[in-house]
Amino acid sequence: CEQRFPNNKYVLKPTPAAYGGLRAFAGEFQHMAAIGWTRTYYNAYPTIDYLCGGSLITWKFVLTAAHCSADGNNIPPDTVRLGDTNLASFYDDMYAQQIPIARFIKHPQYRWSRKYYDIAVVELGQYVMTNKAICVACLWREQDAPGDLMD
């Protein structure tokens, strides 16, 4: 895996954190993806509602929850945003990438009413370009998990 926490993180204007949470720094969670729905309200400019998250696991696939395959109106998401720590601000967009969704692959045993097998893979419409703010998640590649705590 590439370097996870570079020393050259840049600090942006403070923003409110999630209740009880801490603000993320740019480049701190390089694998995080925002899954969104493009909307046009009353002939206005299109906006994107980001309702789900995921993790970039290869340069073309994002791991997410199967229940993210549609919103409350049964509309599928159409876009993924990477490299953007604060979706409400333009100050951290220099490395952000907006990529269309090619297809949403849910676990075959997933059922909306049960929430079991709530896992899916999003195939992106193009490959992600690597940069300082975007990197694939480090996944365990060994047969067995370690028996002791990991640092």
TrEMBL record:
It comes from the Eukaryota. Residues 18-151 form the Peptidase S1 domain. It holds the Pfam family Trypsin. GO terms for molecular function: serine-type endopeptidase activity. One of its GO terms (biological process) is proteolysis. Gene3D superfamilies: Trypsin-like serine proteases (2.40.10.10). Keywords: Disulfide bond. The keyword Cytoplasm does not apply. Belongs to the peptidase S1 family. CLIP subfamily. This is Peptidase S1 domain-containing protein. It comes from Anopheles quadriannulatus (Mosquito).
